[in-house]
Design a protein that fits this description.
Structural class: alpha+beta
Helix content: 10-25%
Strand content: 35-45%
Number of strands: 22
Largest sheet: 10 strands, mixed
Distance between the termini: 44 Å
Number of helices: 10
Radius of gyration: 24 Å
């Protein structure tokens, strides 16, 4: 790999560029992990990687043409080849509709110390976590449960330089821990818990295992139920499973062009329309405590909702839904010119919040006469963009609630639901807490969600998955 520092690579690539505009992104990633199976640590490791992306802009006869090329494991002598490859890609590209002037330093956001070395992590971040796991494993014999899972931590430093003089860097710590338990032998019962962990200081494996043990006890009784609509209490993790797809599908351009569930009948968007039955806020904020992320745009290419032309622009708290009313959609500066709305860039976190709500899952379960506790979802796929309909499967824990108590574990289901429609039909929300989506947590771990009560969640068919 290159012996140059990321900052040196940015400056050299910009100096080599012959394009009318150029942006260079260098991402330095340091990562470490622990894995365990059968109540025993199996592997741990550490890795370091670097990627370099050059985005070239050429002013062609029909407008700006863009080429973006990314390489990993780049040697110093290969940098010029990368720059020329991006320029060649730009010269053969069709003109882009996303073209706007690159941000000047005075328009850009604020970043970290440009000259500091890249952030690093190491296996020592797991010191207390590993000790806690050891205590959990030693106790597994008495519990007759086996433990499986993994913990990962990374530190990613992103360096952005542009031909207009912008120089920004951001250091992103990121970690997750996921733990599964199942009974010894052929018993198929299993349960899952997961947490996002930027530094692992607050990770308590014994507390996580206590929740797994509770769910294992619930599963001592097995109940078969048919497909149908059920009152459901969704813990924050399964709410995150559904809200992340909503966020990813909330682009202004698709809405304006009539391609999404946020398109207004007859044209335009649903901004200003009530979309949630409760006065919920759905927001993103680079400075949200515990979920901090890049305060400026970082993009490798032009796109419908995020564009390299906006690289370096500041990101600020944005309420996508405000007190139940659709308030904003994700859009680039180019899209904003067409919609007449403010540009609102993609922010790498998401929070759903009901101001004043204080109850947790247990309190909501205690108020449930009969329903299901739906702990996590997986294999979620889009069915119909026009309604935002998603399909997927339940996994590792659907539990029957009767008279305010969990009384058994239920078979798995396939579900068909729209996250937008869930917000419309939700009748109760609790306090928001950090929550890791089982489905999307590996690529989007920074979420905080409340538990939700849905009176008629659609379990479309019984699933034999276990």
């Amino acid at each position: 790999m290159s012996a140059s520092t990321p900052q040196e690579l940015v400056e050299r690539a910009l100096g080599l560029s012959r394009a009318d505009g150029c942006m260079v992104l260098v991402r330095e990633r340091s990562s470490t992990n622990l894995r365990w199976a059968g109540s025993s640590l199996t592997t741990n490791g550490a890795a370091h990687s670097r990627s370099v992306t050059v985005v070239s802009v050429v002013d062609g006869p029909g407008g700006a043409q863009v080429g973006a090329v990314e390489r990993g494991g780049l040697l110093d002598g290969e940098l010029e080849e990368l720059v020329r490859a991006a320029e060649e890609a730009a010269s053969s590209a069709i003109p882009t509709e996303e073209a706007v002037p690159l941000a000047a330093p005075g328009e850009a956001g604020r970043g970290g110390d440009w000259d500091a070395p890249p952030a690093v992590t190491g296996v020592e971040v797991f010191s207390e976590t590993a000790r806690g796991l050891g205590r959990v494993f030693r106790a597994s014999g008495a519990s007759k449960r086996l433990h499986y899972g993994f913990a990962e931590h990374s530190a990613v430093s992103t360096f952005l330089g542009t031909s207009t003089g912008v120089r920004l860097r951001h250091d992103q710590p990121e970690g997750t821990i996921e733990m599964n338990t199942r009974a010894e032998g052929s018993d198929p019962r299993s349960a899952w818990v997961g947490r996002s962990a930027p530094d692992f200081a607050a990770v308590d494996p014994e507390a996580l295992d206590a929740e797994l043990a509770r769910r294992a006890e619930w599963a001592a009784r097995q109940v078969e139920l048919p497909a149908g609509r059920y009152e459901v209490v969704m813990p924050p993790e399964s709410v995150a499973d559904m809200m992340v797809p909503l966020y990813f599908d909330s682009g202004a351009r698709d809405a304006v062009e009539g391609r999404s569930a946020l398109s207004a009948p007859g044209g335009g968007t649903r901004v200003g329309e009530r979309v949630a039955g409760l006065p919920l806020n759905l927001l993103s904020d680079p400075g949200y405590a515990g979920l901090e992320c890049s305060p400026f745009v970082v993009a490798s290419s032009p796109g419908r909702d995020i564009s390299a032309f906006d690289n370096g622009l500041p990101l600020r708290r944005t309420e996508w839904i405000s007190e139940g009313v659709l308030n904003a959609l994700g859009q680039t500066r180019a899209t904003a010119r067409r919609t007449g709305m403010e540009p609102t860039g993609f922010i790498d976190n998401l929070v759903l919040d009901l101001p004043g709500a204080a109850d947790g899952v247990d309190e909501m379960v205690a108020r449930t006469e009969r329903g299901l506790l739906l702990t996590c979802l997986w294999y979620i796929r889009s069915v119909d963009p026009q309604t935002m309909l998603q399909t997927g499967l339940t996994r590792d824990g659907v539990y029957l609630v009767e008279d305010g108590r969990v009384t058994g574990a239920v078979n798995n289901f396939r579900f068909n639901e729209s996250p937008l429609d869930l917000l419309r039909r939700a009748t109760e929300a609790g306090a928001s807490v950090p929550a890791l989506s089982r489905e999307a947590g590996d690529m989007f771990p920074r979420t905080a969600m409340p538990p939700l009560r849905i009176p008629d969640f659609n379990m479309s068919t019984v699933s034999k998955a276990s």
